[in-house]
Amino acid sequence: MINDSTQLRWLKDSIESFYKPTEEDFRVAESVIIDAILKDKSGRRYILDVDNVRNYYRQYAFYSAMNGDSMVYVNGLCEILEFPSDSCGIATFKPFEWKNKFMCVEDGGDCYWSIMINKSKRSYYHFSINGI
């Protein structure tokens, strides 16, 4: 769960506050994701389908927008990358702390996707798959 606006700088002006989601919040978000996939089977989203989307790790940011709407930003990741870490002069690789830190990738192919969900309206926008 991402609840730090410094990690979501492009959203900082629209975030009123973060909130702790309920199980229903997650169900609504997943329902909107499936709806988005089903509505756009052509073009760039052909590689993401209702079966394989369940295999992606998810990063969620649940927040109240300045206009009062409940919003969810979802970042989908097919793998957790490892990054170099220095420990007493010995370079090791450690998995990215994806549960606490937002993962921002450039390109990444169909391994990464994101969607902005307006939970209040059960709608979405900015549904994109990186690098496709």
Question: Could you walk me through the main structural features you see in this protein, from its secondary elements to its overall organization?
Answer:
- By secondary structure, this protein is mainly beta.
- It contains one helix and seven strands.
- The chain has one domain (5-129).
- The protein has one helix spanning 23-39; strands spanning 15-18, 57-65, 70-77, 82-87, 90-95, 112-118, 123-129.
- A five-stranded antiparallel β-sheet has the order 1-2-3-6-7, covered by helices on one side. A two-stranded antiparallel ribbon has the order 4-5.
- The two termini are 26 Å apart.
Total E-strand runs:
7
Q: On the 0-100 scale, what is the average pLDDT?
A: 84
Overall domain count: 1
Unreliable stretches (pLDDT < 50, length at least 5) are none
* Strand order, largest beta sheet: 1-2-3-6-7
Q: Which sheet architecture does the biggest sheet show?
A: 5 strands, antiparallel
What would the principal axes of the Cα set say about the shape?
globular
Residues in helices, as a percent range: 10-25%
How would you spell out the order of helices and strands? EHEEEEEE
Structural class: mainly beta
What is the helix tally? 1
Cα separation of the termini: 26 Å
Question: Which assembly state applies to the chains in this document?
Answer: single chain
Task: Indicate the radius of gyration in whole angstroms.
Answer: 16 Å
